[in-house]
Amino acid sequence: MRTLQLLALAAALGVVLLALASAGEAHVTKLHIFGNLTDGANPGGIVAGPNGVFYGVTAYGGTGGGVYGYGTVFELQPPPSGSDGTWTETVLYSFTGQNGEGIVGYPVTPVISANGVLYGATSGGGISGSGTVFELQPPSA
């Protein structure tokens, strides 16, 4: 009886593995490579915006100063139809590391988009340096 159960399980696993193998391999395409600190480093998650645009954050980089920067909020624009497929990154905001504005930087969560406004959180800033939640209005098109 136990042998029959094991044989049935092995046959079921074989069918699943065969189905997975015949389904083909996943295909991955890179959309953007972060190439220097000014465009950001260590990207976090992204969120889809209108018209195929993606928004995201980087934990480091940007033009806000510091040795490695304080992070960025960026936008990835899809390529125009019929083009070579190159996506365009635009840094919407570079965190400055200055306590005067209260938002030091080092974004720790992906941004979320609500009604065209981006929201996120940082691990630095605020009164005690314990972090902030920020709101960013992307430039209007």
Which terms summarize this structure?
141 residues, alpha+beta, 8 strands, globular, disordered N terminus
Describe the model.
It is a single chain. This protein has one domain (37-136). The strands form two sheets. Strands 1-2-3-4 form a four-stranded antiparallel sheet, with no helix packed on it. Strand 1 and strand 2 form a beta hairpin. By secondary structure, the protein is α+β, with helices and mostly antiparallel strands. It has one helix at 2-22, and strands spanning 41-48, 54-60, 72-77, 88-94, 103-107, 112-114, 117-125, 132-136. 15% of the residues lie in helices and 35% in strands. The model is unreliable at 1-21 (pLDDT under 50). The protein contains one helix and eight strands.
Short description:
The protein is an alpha+beta fold and 141 residues long.
List the strand order in the largest sheet: 1-2-3-4
Mean pLDDT, all residues:
78
Count the beta strands: 8
Cα-to-Cα separation, first versus last residue: 69 Å
Overall structural class, as computed from helix and strand content, comes to alpha+beta
Report the portion of residues in β strands.
Answer: 35-45%
Radius of gyration: 22 Å
| Portion in helices | 10-25%
What spatial form do the alpha-carbon principal axes imply? Answer: globular
Largest sheet: 4 strands, antiparallel
Low-confidence stretches: 1-21
What is the ordering of alpha helices and beta strands? HEEEEEEEE
Number of helices: 1
How many domain regions?
A: 1
